[in-house]
Amino acid sequence: MPRRPVAVFALASWARRDVFPADLITRLRHLVDIDPDTTFTSFRDPDAATVLAEADVLITGWGGPFIDLDVLVAAPRLRVVVHAAGTVKNRLDPVVFERGVIVSSAAGVNAVPVADYTMAMLVLGAKQAFSRAERYATAVEGAPRDWLSGDGTGLHDCTVGVVGASRIGRLVLDRLRSFDVEVLLYDPYVTAAEAASLGAERVGMDDLCRRSDLVTVHAPALPETRHLLDGRRLDLLPAGAVVINTARGSLVDTEALTRVCRTGAVSAILDVTEPEPLPPGHPLFALPNVLITPHLAGAQGRELRRLGEFAVAEVDRYLKGAPLLGQVEPARLPYIA
Predict the structure, then answer these.
(1) HEC string for 90-132
(2) Which end of the chain has less Cβ packing within 10 Å, N or C?
(3) b vs e for 112-124, b when ≥16 Cβ sit within 10 Å of the residue's Cβ?
(4) How far apart are CA 313 and CA 28, in angstroms?
(5) CATH number of the domain at 155-292, out of 3.10.180.10, 3.40.50.720, 3.10.450.50, 3.65.10.10?
(6) Other CB atoms closer than 10 Å to residue 317's CB: what's the count?
(7) pTM for the whole thing?
(8) Other beta carbons within 10 Å of 80
(9) Catalytic annotation present for 295
(10) Which one is predicted more confidently, 332 or 12?
(11) What is the pLDDT of residues 187-234, one digit of tens each?
């Protein structure tokens, strides 16, 4: 009888529970031998060596251990790593690829709720919903009813600047086709023709800042993208512009953003910050034109099972010899989010 492939969970216990509910565990166990009650957050665990020695498949996720040469030596049968979360950047050593191990990520699935969050914030940000709600809540009897004013608000006929034609950026670009907006795109790796096919005009970063009513950031964190939105570029934004960042906090200069938001010239919606989290009492928390959410744009709650569904389907595809939909190309590893 041929040996059944063996899989091992390497992620936080809460992630195993929430990403892989009982019905997905049942489907997974039809494909591989796996103990759903054993999951590793460190391969230094005394039991890890025994389990790794038999592992053909590693199913990783949030809270999972770093995968390096030591892990590969301990897992000589390992052929595929399926990451049931977003990015695998900084979660594995490139030696994994050099040893011929295939890596797949559910980043494409995790991108969907981020794009949905972004679209919601574009609509609400264009309406100045958060600052107007603050004025509404704090208005006193007899005060000017300026919280009612909607002059110059709304997404219709706006110019939206998208920074980065990443996986999430492209989903946002696709969703923007449903709105009557002009779309600008900054991405040095995208041609003008490709930008046009995505429904956008390819522009330089400074031009995007000068022309955009709303700027939404979807570029990876790289040395060259650090403070891509710095003080000089934030000063280029039109009065009343909104900055939305769901990518990485390092892309926006926090000090400079605080300065322009304090004046009221610019508003911001941030799901990521630098540092993350911001220290208690940071001035951005107190500004009525700034909304900061705790890195929740990605898969949350009921959305998490979609990551598990994808991971189980990837294991199935791998065992059937079919192409993996989330396969990570080693050359792209430094440039992903």
Answers:
(1) CCECCHHHHCCCEEEECHHHHHHHHHHHHHHHHHHHHCCHHHH
(2) N
(3) bbbbebbbebbeb
(4) 9
(5) 3.40.50.720
(6) 18
(7) 0.94
(8) 22
(9) yes
(10) 12
(11) 999 999 999 999 999 999 999 999 999 999 999 999 999 999 999 999
Which one, of 27, 5, 9, 37, lies nearest residue 310 by Cα? 27
List the catalytic residue out of 295, 303, 305, 306.
295
Using alpha carbons only, how large is the chain's radius of gyration in Å?
23
As a whole number of Å, the end-to-end CA separation of the chain is: 43
SS3 2: coil
- pLDDT value for 232: 98
With a cut of 90, say whether residue 269 has pLDDT above it: yes
Residue among 331, 313, 332, 334 at smallest CA distance from 31: 313
The whole-angstrom separation of Cα 189 and Cα 89 is: 20
Name beta bridge partners: 186.
163
Quote the tokens at residue 258: 């605080």
Q: Tokens for 4?
A: 């059944």
The dotted CATH code for 7-109+301-335 is: 3.40.50.720
Question: Annotated catalytic residue: which of 83, 91, 248, 317?
Answer: 248
Q: What is the mean pLDDT of residues 10-16?
A: 97
Q: Which of 79, 84, 92 is nearest to 108 (CA)?
A: 84
Cα-based distances in Å from 44 to 40, 177, 195, 266: 9, 49, 47, 48
Angle at 210 between CA 216 and CA 203, to 5 degrees: 70
DSSP run (H or E) holding 8: strand 7-10
Given the residues 175, 276, 305, 306, select the one marked as catalytic.
276
For the question of residue 248 being annotated catalytic, the response is: yes
The sheet carrying 159-163 orders its strands as 201-202, 182-186, 159-163, 214-217, 241-245, 266-270, 290-292
Residues forming CATH 3.40.50.720 domain(s) in the chain: 7-109+301-335, 155-292
In this prediction, residue 142 has a pLDDT band, given cuts at 50, 70 and 90, of low
Whether the Cβ atoms of residue 183 and residue 162 lie closer than 8 Å to each other: yes
What pLDDT is recorded for position 148?
Answer: 64
Sheet architecture: strand order including 57-60: 7-10, 57-60, 80-83, 102-105
Active site residue 79: no
